[in-house]
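Entry 0007
Protein: M18 family aminopeptidase
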Amino acid sequence: MDLMLKRENIFSNTKDQNPIYLFNREYLDFLSGCKTERKVASYIVEEAQKRGFTNLEEALKEERTLKPGDKVYLFFKNKAVLLAVIGEKPLREGFNLVASHLDVPRLDLKPQPLYEKDGFVLLKTHYYGGIKKYQWVTRPLALWGTVVLKGGKVLDIKYGEDENEGVLTITDLLPHLAKDQMEKKIREAITGEDLNALTGNIPDQEAKENKIKTYILKLLHDRFGITEEDLITAELSLVPAGPAREVGLDRSMVGGFGQDDRVCVFTSLKAILEVEAPVKTAIALFMDREEIGSMGNTGMQSKFLENAILKLLVAQGEKDELMLRLSLENARALSADVTAAVDPTFEGVLEKNNAAQINYGIVLTKYTGSGGKYGTSEASAEFMREIIDLFNQEGIRWQTGELGKVDQGGGGTVAQFLANLGMEVLDAGVALLSMHSPFEVAGKADIYEAYRAYKAFLSGGKS
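Output (structure tokens):
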């Protein structure tokens, strides 16, 4: 009988590593090609449709009764998605849910972003989520997003990813002139209003004023058919240009933009696409707005999940609201979100006995929050035991983690909002280095184990 908990790098005892590398090859493509919430949500729906998922709204209109094994989806306001595989047991006895979030820290354009100054045109931005502002300067940036034209036509915008296109960038002060800047605290050296992207320098030869801005507007109109007024309706963001990459001489890690939390989006998506005939209904939930508090109609604090469960109940012949409440309080959920990994360069912020390491497995986090566990739910002892037993039974490598030392800082996930509905909830996700930076790093083995863990949980395990 082993009395001591053992932890080790997964690669140290994995003879066949091909599945790990093959899985991550597809993940790299996803990460490089889906850099906005709308793009990720559309990708999820497209992949689900390929695997036989049908629109739940259509089933309701046709008054079609769902039966065990049916696969359905809900696509809400282009930024929230729910995928469900109907189980053998009635929904009122609960369901297994894996919830992740689509949104990531980034730079959003202001409603009127274009301005001309000192021989340049720049774009004004407003950062979204928790970032270190200095990390976003002097790097190539691409423009991604959506614009709605007069009449309702929707345009998808992507510029700066093709090698034949230009990129945008935010400039910084040269060290020769940065004496005052370098005496400031690091969070004050670059301010939010300093995050202005260099956009152009050529004047329009026919314009009488704002010549460079006029030239840029003509370029935007020629390329995309948009005017300055259209920018007011737009959801446009600046994101790091270029693809995600393998990291390390051994290629054991993945580096790229948006892994918090799209690493859990991709792994839980792949998991539910492979679920067949579960005992309890399996649900993968993909929500927006987590990085700014989960507010809004596509955030976890909205009624989307409750409404979706109610629609599933109606499609199975249940119309009593009590059945909704029973379904929610009998549910079991994994909050699929990332956590901090031990970084050898910054050792002091984590308590190593309770810190996650890269390529040691999916991370189980009993609670998040900050200080005295503020702003979190906490998984029960019974649910922790259930999940650990399931993962041990399935041979899934796992570890535990915390988001920093007790008084160091902290953060939260959507777990608290799921728990408020009565569910048993545990945070389970992938450890990252450089979280919230333009180039986050995850371990390939952790990514693969997250997929295996979510699949085992959604498929049933303990019924």
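Curator remark: The chain has a mean pLDDT of 96. The chain has two domains: 10-104+257-459, 106-240.
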